[in-house]
Amino acid sequence: MGETTAEASSAELMVDLIISLDGYASAEGWPGWWGLEAPEYLAWLEREGQKQYTYLLGANTYRLMSAMSEEAAAADSGFSETEAASLTGLADVPKVVFSSSLRAPLSWPNSRLVGGDAVEAVAEMKRSGNGPMSTLGSLSLSRSLLTAGLVDRFRLVVFPVITGRTGRERIYDGYPDVALEMVDSRTFDGRLQLLEYVPTVLSGPPGTAPK
């Protein structure tokens, strides 16, 4: 089915998202991962965290994830052991934060602030062979990078819930038309579905003249 993630090129960029079946990134009143994280999925997440990605994120995700990482390091954090390990481990990996509102130096270890245009900065990182990169949440950043044609892989983990009433952060709003070639898939714990694609941004429906 083509290259797997492990065979990816050194400057590959992946958009990596979790999503409900109806296209939301989260839901009001629901726990993280919609309460459906389970051993196989969490073990896979831990293995993924050991890969040499540089994580790309925006200001809102930076604020949220850095606070969660700090909270998870406390003895009475309330996170499970696996969740805490995953969150605290993010402090050790390289991160690039795109923001015009944050100010350097950033307090979360291994975080570099970029105040200019994110699309231009990521394009230069790809040209210079920065190594494999992955988004971390950051829906608007992910959308901008995909629209610009910079994304090599588009990976989703689909959670089997529909949150039509409580869903927040619709993932695909504002996206261009995109053709997706599936290159990997698997099921975690008999219920979570990983889908990985090579995306191609389209100017319009196939067979129509470019606009």
Automatic annotation (TrEMBL):
Domain Bacterial bifunctional deaminase-reductase C-terminal spans what residues?
13-193
- Its name, as the record gives it, is Dihydrofolate reductase
Q: What is the lineage of its organism?
A: Bacteria, Bacillati, Actinomycetota, Actinomycetes, Micrococcales
